[in-house]
Amino acid sequence: MDLQDVQSTFLRLLDESATQFQRLPGSAILLRYIKSSYQNDPVRSAVELFLFLFAVRYLLAPTYSTQKTHVPLSENEIDELVEDWTPEPLVAPQTAFEEAENEKRPVIVGPTGPKSKLSNGRTVTNLASYNFYNFVGNEALKEKAIQTLRTYGVGPCGPPGFYGTQDVHMKTEADIASHLGTAACIVYAQSFSTISSVIPAFSKRGDIIVADKAVNYAVRKGLQISRSTVRWYEHNDTEDLRRVLETVTKEQSKKPLARRFIVTEGLFENVGDMPDLPRVLELKYRYKFRLILDETWSYGVLGRTGRGLTEHQNVDAREVDMIIGSLAGPLCAGGGFCGGSEE
Fold first, then answer.
1. At what angle do helices 27-40 and 3-23 cross, to 10 degrees?
2. Helix (H, G, I), strand (E, B), or coil: what is residue 194?
3. Which residues pair with 261 in a beta bridge?
4. How many CB atoms lie within 10 A of CB 287?
């Protein structure tokens, strides 16, 4: 077959293909679209042709699994791989400089307390411990703790309202209420969650909370969880507190009745100072607010007998609606408490 025969055969097949294509419904519209598109914008025709060929290639491509193929290994192969594997160290080896620096660092020997003994034999004052009264090193307390563990175990492992309250819990609540001078008390399993649980338990959406700007993180979490409207006053500024209380009272005079609280600390964790509690109580009664006093760091520290800010500033604890304290700070135990009225 010579070249002329090949050309004639190709032209004949092309004519037959065109004839067959023209018999398809809508072929004329497609041909007109391609011709006009090519004349007006040949780049667009080239892009559309590329996309068409890509779609055909994608549809005709063989399928494959995205699952990872698992190659089974024999026991001997696994043992060989384990023997050849060398794990990287979790910590890089110390340099000579780091070893010299670590030798200079003081290491406490024995329990931490107000006075701690170092590995070099020196006895120093420890300002980084909550064990202010060295209760951790008290042998009588250790023996009492061992006896309690042998009697009750490590805990009831249940909620207080179900089977988690035992006689020691009720006695502890009565002792704390008697020590504070309040009518009742309830203990919590964790110190941090005490104040962050008490606030949302009494204050809900639509209620008003006026809080000191320097309150600690646990108090702020309680304010956030309560979803109440929070107004802030300048730290330990009772005049600014009066202004905020007066503004809130005027705003709420024409609105439905809502619960209103003042939240402050007995000994501020972030600052280290104390509020003027008698002045705060005066404003509380004037504008008809309830007072939540967080004594996490003042209970066991302030006052002649450690009852906190109320004793330190000669205030009747019954005038404070809710007193929140920690048993995990100076008392070196665990949990927290909320003291107040029976209601």
1. 110
2. helix
3. 209, 290
4. 17
Enter the tokens of residue 265. Answer: 């600390």
Give the helix ranges, DSSP H, for the chain: 3-23, 27-40, 42-60, 75-84, 96-104, 139-152, 167-180, 192-202, 217-226, 238-252, 277-287, 309-312
Q: Position of tokens 């005049």?
A: 239
| Angle made by CA atoms 65, 70, 72, in degrees to the nearest 5 | 150
Predicted TM-score of the model (pTM): 0.69
Q: Give the sheet arrangement for strand 184-188, strand by strand.
A: 184-188, 336-340, 322-326, 290-295, 260-265, 208-212, 229-233
Instruction: Classify residue 191 by its DSSP letter.
Output: S
* C-alpha dihedral (181, 340, 313, 128), degrees to nearest 10: 100
Tell me the β-bridge partners of 212.
233
* Residue 209 to residue 321: CA distance in whole angstroms: 14
Instruction: Convert the pLDDT of each residue in 220-234 to its tens digit.
Output: 999 999 999 999 999
- Element (DSSP H or E) covering residue 264: strand 260-265
SS3 state of residue 193:
helix
Q: How far is CA 264 from CA 12, 107, 162, 237, 337, in A?
A: 97, 38, 32, 12, 16
pLDDT tens digits for range 302-339: 999 999 999 999 999 999 999 999 998 888 888 999 99
CB atoms within 10 A of CB 231: 16
Other CB atoms within 10 Å distance of the CB of residue 283: 20
